[in-house]
Amino acid sequence: MIPDEALKKISQRFKLSAPVYVTRPRMPELSAYSRCLEQIWDSRWLTNDGQFHREFERRLKEYLGVEHLNLFVNGTIGLLVALQALRINSGEVITTPFTFAATSHVLHWNGIRPVYCDIEDKTFNIDASKIERLIGSDTKGILAVHVYGNPCDVEAIQAIADRHGLNVIYDAAHAFGVRIGDKSIMEYGDISAMSFHATKLFNSIEGGALVSKSEKQRTRIQFLRNFGIADAETVIGPGINGKMNEFQASFGLLGLDLVDEEIEDRRTLTYLYHRLLSDVPGITYLEDMPGVRHNYSYMPILVDPETFGISRDALSEILRECNVYSRKYFYPLCSNYPCYSALPSSAPENLPVANRIADHILCLPLYGELDEDIVENVCRIIGVIGHEM
Ligand SMILES: *Cc1c(COP(=O)(O)O)cnc(C)c1O
User: Fold this and answer.
1) Element holding 93 (H helix, E strand)
2) 117, 124, 164, 191: which has the fewest C-beta neighbours closer than 10 Å?
């Protein structure tokens, strides 16, 4: 453990004058948003497929280079509807424990038992080589996550799905703007689900979208998103309310013009982090993957306590003493939540890599408007500990 005195010295030397959080949303010009609000006021059209909704859907399809897209009020309802659209509402779905709570919860809310598969230690994504042994007579699909925007092994996962006649859903909440070669990552699997929550790379305050494979699927999703209503007197099925409103859509539209700059700025800061942390013993990070256009949505590091000298938790506390708020994404694992820990696949012996990564992972502050000085300061704190403890 790090002695109190050393801790005091570090925080005296490096404490920032104002707190720095793990992320911060890029905001459009207030005056531009005011003009949108005036239009909304004048039109009295607040939600239900308004002009901003239609324009946002069109511009998003264009930006992502995808054909079949539905907007949602948030990413979680989008995922819920994706499962319904594929008629996955019983049995088991193979998924990753190393993700945000929503990924497992949408399975539960659809009456599906999650079956947890271990992850790769190179990408923190579901380990495709371990999926097939988990497939049984109740398996209905695979729900994988492109964690931190790094693509899953999409080819291997599709090959498994094809062999066993399974659907693939990608929780692509972290993967906005990511491309594999010249193809949007959203084109893989049967449906990909995005989140535009305020904490994500790209946001519409709250929001989300599904990308599907056909116009037929898109239409089905559209009914499910609006209570199953086909017209004023026809309800064709048990839908839900997943509609995005005009306030979200216009905010998202303005944000779309800023997202490439945001990715550029985050890329510069990510490379700065990498350069400054490259020789700190016990700290590792993910490198770019060949052929991938990354979005630099998070800045995860692994803290190996043996080599680094102190644990991930201790480092996170020291950073907090210095006014730097890192986050333990994703700790705890979904498989260790009380609501899922009794499932047979949740046993830590079955998930050794995921459990180790969850114990060592720490996400450092990263957002486009973050000062390089602050990155340097954060790395100095980590470096001093790594070299001196
Ligand atoms: C944020 C997030 C979600 C949920 O999205 P919301 O828009 O907040 O509902 C789902 N999965 C992952 C991996 C996320 O990070």
Assistant:
1) strand 92-95
2) 164
Cβ-contact 54, 251 below 8 angstroms = no
* Ligand 1 atom at shortest distance from the alpha carbon of 147: 13
Say which residues have a Cβ less than 8 Å from residue 85's Cβ, sequence separation at least 6.
191, 210, 212, 217, 220, 221, 224
The residue with tokens 């996170």 is: 316
* Number of other CB atoms surrounding residue 232 within 10 Å: 5
> Which atom of ligand 1 is nearest the CA belonging to 77?
9
Residue 72 and residue 81 in contact, taking contact as beta carbons nearer than 8 Å: yes
DSSP code of residue 128:
G
In tens, the pLDDT along 336-381 reads: 999 999 999 999 999 999 999 999 999 999 999 999 999 999 999 9
Question: Does the pTM exceed 0.90?
Answer: yes
Cα–Cα nearest to 374, from 13, 8, 7, 20: 20
- State in Å: Cα 4 to ligand 1 middle: 38
* Token representation of residue 262: 């945001």
What is residue 188's predicted lDDT score, i.e. its pLDDT?
A: 98
